[in-house]
Structures are given as structure tokens and as C-alpha cells.
Amino acid sequence: MRSNDKPRTARQKYGEELRLRRTAAGLTQEALAEQVVCSPTLISHYEAGRRLPSPDDARRIDRALGTDGFFERWLQDLETKYDENFAAVAELEQQAVLIQQFALTLVPGLLQTDDYARALFRAYRPNHRREEIDQDVVIRTERARLLDGPLNPVLWTLLDEAVLRRRVGGPQVMAKQLRKIADMAEAGRLRLHVLPFEAGAHSLQQSLLTLMSFADSAPVAYVEGFQTGNLMDDPSLVASSSTAYDLALGDALSHQDSVVRVRAAAEEHEHGQQ
Question: Are 53 and 71 in contact (CB under 8 A)?
């Protein structure tokens, strides 16, 4: 291996093999996408190792390429520690050069403190074991390590003011969580904007949204609800999602004023003023 070569992940090997088999079969990405019943952009993500196909898509890929179950069987060896509806998003985060996230009611996972995350996991699991909660917190903490680097990804965070006001885990946990966000914003690790209550209705009021951009591939958008998630790569849907984000950003406080609002909310939590 040359000194400037980087080790390939298992997903990258999977994607490279898919590209080689597709080329050998004389198919373009568009032609394969037509047989798999997906977008060419999605095939591009598969081949770049940024996403893994679903079992059904892997089965259709095998059928289109005549690979006798090869890609479906290999897929079983690439199990993820994330929920099925979020696994692809977690993979894409690692490759993104720009992440623009909007949170409606909760602090985004990439920014959560351990105590805040633990309180969330307890809230929706009436019968939980401490070991399970601890493991989930570790997974979330490991995911956030992509922010350890000083440059990539560039992170924009847009928060509805409701995120600041809902007391998750108690006053001290909430104060610590908000101060972490403000500290990161002041350190230049994220661009922070708050959509204040006084802004009224806004373009993202119905859902959280994450936009991700890449150095060598088309952008994607992700929205999430209870037990569901929708990762979109259709250019028209991504464009409309980006427009909605821009509209909401236009109604938000400035970066500096947002940091002030977040720190003020932290003080209010700590002193029991909410």
C-alpha cells in the first residue's frame, strides 16, 4: 500500500465491488437504477460507500447484475448499530462536508451531552435497563466524534426556541446542555441560530430537517418523525427542503444574538426561572 493510500471501509469495498460488477455488466448507473427502482443518485451513494442498499434493493441489484445473491449475502455482514431508519444517515454524516440541521423540540443528537441523551432514552422506554441506556449513550457519543476535527464537517444548527425551553433531565442537565451549545458556537465549531417564539409560524414548523452536502456527490435531505425517518435524494425534494431551511433561517436571530438567547435560557434553567 502506498503511504498516501487510505484504508477502505467495508462499505467502500462493497460499493467498489458494485461499481465493478455494474461496469462489467455494461450498465450505467441510470440503467441499473431503473432496474432497482431507485434514483441514479442512490446508486452513486451505494458505489461510493456512503450508503448501503436495503435488503430488497440488494436483491434487485443481484437480479439486475446476475450475481446470484452475492450483494444480498454480503449485506448481512455489514450490520449497523443504528436503527434501520437512521443507519444510512449516520453513514452519510461521516462523509459530509456541510451539515445543516434544524431541531424542532430536542437538541440534535450530534450536540447532546451524555446526561441529556440519557434522559431522552429513559423518557421513551418505560421498561429499560441501565446497561441498555448506557450503551445507547456511548453510541451517540461516538457518533458525535465527527465534530472533533476543527474543520469538517461545517455545521449549521438552527433551533426552534422550544428546544431551549423544554427542560430535559432537570434544570442542571438542561443548563449544562445549553452551555455546551453556546460554547461550541463561540469557539467557531458551529454556526448557531435560534428561531424565537416571536417569529411566529415558520417554514420548518412541522418537522426536524437535516441537509447534508458532499465534496463529490449530490446533497441529501433527511426528515424524521416517531419511529420513522425519510432520507431524500430526489433533487426536487432536496431543493425544496433547502429552500424551507433558508426561509426559516431568514426568520431566525443572528449568530451572536442566538448565543445570548441560549446562555440566558441556561441561566434561567439553573436558577429555576422556567
Answer: yes
To the question of pTM greater than 0.85 for the whole model, the response is no
pLDDT score recorded for residue 2 = 36
* Architecture field, domain 10-75: Orthogonal Bundle (1.10)
Q: What is the pLDDT of residues 180-217, one digit of tens each?
A: 999 999 999 999 999 999 999 999 998 899 999 988 88
Tell me the sheet residues that pair with 247. Answer: none
Scanning the chain, the segments in alpha helix (DSSP H) are 10-24, 29-36, 40-48, 55-65, 70-75, 87-93, 114-123, 130-143, 161-165, 171-186, 235-250, 255-270
Work out the average pLDDT over 156-171. 97
The amino acid sitting at 251 is D
One-letter amino acid at 84 equals: E
Q: Which CATH architecture has domain 87-270?
A: 2-Layer Sandwich (3.30)
C-alpha span between 107 and 71 (Å, rounded)? 37
User: Average model confidence (pLDDT) for the chain?
Assistant: 90
